[in-house]
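Morning F.,

Quick status update on the modeling queue. The single chain you submitted on Monday has been processed. Sequence for confirmation:
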Amino acid sequence: MPQVDRDAPMDGFGRSRVVRKGPKGLSNFKLKVMGFVFVLLSAYGTAIYQRGMPADYRNADFTQMTISVVLEVMSWMAFPIFAWLLYTGFLHTANLRNYALRLVGLAVVSEVPYDLATSGKLWDMSSQNPVIGLALCLLVLYLLDMVKKRSETRAVVLQLIIVVGGALWMLFLNVGLRFGLMPGGVLLLAFVLVFWYLSKRENTMMMVGALIGAIAVVMPAAGFIILHYHNNELGMQPKTKWAFYALYPAALLLIGFAGITLG
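Structure tokens below.
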């Protein structure tokens, strides 16, 4: 039923104007925008502030190094956000095959811009872009969904093999590896698994996810605080998603070229 704002002006018939209020909280669209901004912080910090820094950080400019680290650590709030968006996308997509193809396509298109922004090279195997991690996580969810109907003992063994296999592929491909230490792909998978296994107990889900995030240098836990305010609304038109698919590689490419020019 439409809500009436009693403080709203009257119309010509002396009736309060109807005010339609949208749902409170953060829609998937708002979460995606926030996650996108967090991801760009990492690329910007690496391309602009880390470019030209000496190999021995003890000789680096303190201000430059501090800004770079702060931007990088802040970007880690994106991990739980995109893990959640992937999980809800898996549950609600009308065509899983097309969803997977879009992710794989984005991963391929984004690899060179990602390498350019993070290393200044057109091809760098030391770290692969996080979209590859999202595609691997989607595969893990698909396989987990397939085995859940099997007998309990066999299902547990198969699930363990799938999860360990997914984590090993993340490590082998250096997905989202930052500073040579932060295994972003493994962290992304951990959050997706938290949502998969604990989605029916939201408070527990958020607490476990925040704990994992806190262990992983705190900031991913802040991403769970943001997720706490999600409202399960899409908040965007179906065509809007294509803008994000185009913006990600384009923004990385722009930041990468800016880093090379300024460097």
